[in-house]
Amino acid sequence: MLFALNLEHYFNFDYATNTPARIARKKMTSTIEEYDFIVVGAGPSGAVLASGLARSSQRPSVLLLEAGGDNKDGQHLVPADRFAVAFSQPSLNWGYKTAPQTHLKGQQIDYSRGKGLGGSTAINFSCWIVGADEDYDEWARKVGDEDWAWKSVKERLKRIETYHVGVPEEHRKFIDAKQEDHGTSGPLHLSYADPWEKGVADMFIAAEETGMGVNKDGMGLGPTCMYKGKRTTASDFLEDAPSNLTIKTNSPIAKVLLSSSKVATGVKTIDGHTYRAKKDVILSAGALNTPQILLLSGIGPADELAKHNIPLLHEMNDIGKNMQDHAFCGASIITKPGTEGRMAYETDPEAVKAARAQHSKDKTGLLNTLYCSAPMGFFKNDAVMQSKEFAALDKEIQEHLTKPTIPHFEIATHTPPLYIGSYELQPTDSYLCALNFVMNPQSTGTVTLNSADPSDAPIIDPRLASHPYDRRVLIEGYRKLVKLLKAPVFAKDTVRMVGGPEAGTDEEIWEYCSTAMGSSWHMCSTVKMGKKGDERACVDTDFKLNGIKNLRVVDLSVIPLLPNNHTQSTAYLVGQTAAEKLIAEYGLEKRLKL
């Protein structure tokens, strides 16, 4: 079968052959190479940035260093496999786990991170959800830079994407994207499955039946990062790389090199190579590994560095702090045979073989339909607004949460069978799994060091659901999820509900959620951006690390708030914004406009 059949199995893949705790060391060598820019990390931010700098008209020399491999075999690019890649191909996944989570009964939650060219876009679920315009306006307000306001962001996103808006005629009453709102010539191709998977359209009928609405007002269907039978990832930005862009894989970083006057001069890899930067060193290693690299370089809280006998070169108390993430839980319904076709396909070896053969031959067929449409909706909720947990929030936060486009939770459906409890799916079963996510989480966590050894994984403690507001949102979101699953369009075919309670008190629902929580892998904000004078800000709006010259951070570490979206779009946006800002600052493209 393609997918694990319960949450515990699905989020506890055996990484015995790819232990996340350590990075294999190579023989120590000593070489020095020099480039204009060094970018560390080939995920969506780093790949976009490195490509943008290298392709500017002045053609600066750019070195892109990636800790993982080149991911050239392409086995992870089959659209129907998008929910399974992280767990079926451990060579692409660092396989991180969180520290035991206090509010989740001590569970360690899967915190997968992508390895190799493309970074986490190689293993993520390919969703392209940009989020609310008022999130970006709030971002701009927080950091004092209108380049982050929606008006600017919308145009920059267009430069990233080529949006193939085609939706089957019979479904346009539910989804009707407008080409003028999207890009037509960017490197990242986005599209919808065609045809839609059996039963997907019923979700929009259910949303109407339960008063939740469709499209802009409720359940919608965002595009996915796939086109012509292939998942699209950040490595697409590195295709046909110009000669002035040097890409080195299997090159994990030991530390950033600093001069005595606090100037970043280059980086040193774990295997002993030294690379010098004439202009900037740019960390794009993600919200977990970027703070780890900074700490290993002697930049961070003094007490954390002293704990590991790392010399303090520059004190910054908020490195590795403020981490946010979207937590979720969910439930499923088992429906009559034939309602959808996943189990019938997955338990038929000949059907699987035929579908694989067809896709290998011409990139067509069932593998471009199964698991390729996931309806999502972002909702406000009166019960949340009227709760004591909401009333206890700071007034500024309350004001943001009451803005028209800012939701309280998300519901996503048609995922793999993550939430079926002890039920064992049968070949004749059909099912529908739905998840509810907390938006605008108030819980914050940390990234700290296991040791001074750069081959050790960091200690990751997101403190999921540690804030009472997040727990309230998860409880109320779960109630709406159950209401959706009980809509008449589903009720006529439902055999039973599994995975979670059909009703219950706050305490009963939370008891369930606390044992069945997952992470969206939307971790961010561990090297936070902010205004000048903000004591908690680590970087300015040009991505420059405060107090260190020629060192920038360009990835989800820097974002000052977690948008109400799926964050790969934000990671691409961060990389594109940094590329445009650096090109303008260094005069690399005379006609460039932000």
UniProtKB/TrEMBL annotation:
Record's protein name: Alcohol dehydrogenase [acceptor]
Names of the cofactor(s): FAD
The answer to keyword Endoplasmic reticulum applying to this record is no
Q: Transmembrane ranges?
A: none
This protein's gene is called: alkJ
In this chain, FAD is annotated as bound at W521, H522
- One Pfam entry for this protein is GMC_oxred_C
Name the InterPro entries on file.
Answer: FAD/NAD-bd_sf, GMC_OxRdtase, GMC_OxRdtase_N, GMC_OxRtase_C
Instruction: State the taxonomy lineage.
Output: Eukaryota, Fungi, Dikarya, Ascomycota, Pezizomycotina
Keyword annotations for this protein, in alphabetical order, are: FAD, Flavoprotein
Query: Which residues constitute the catalytic centre?
Result: H522 (proton donor), H566 (proton acceptor)
Top-rank taxon, per record: Eukaryota
Family, according to the entry, reads as follows: Belongs to the GMC oxidoreductase family.
Q: Which organism is it from?
A: Lachnellula cervina
Q: Where is the Glucose-methanol-choline oxidoreductase N-terminal domain?
A: 114-137, 286-300
State one molecular function term (GO): flavin adenine dinucleotide binding
Q: Does the keyword Flavoprotein apply?
A: yes
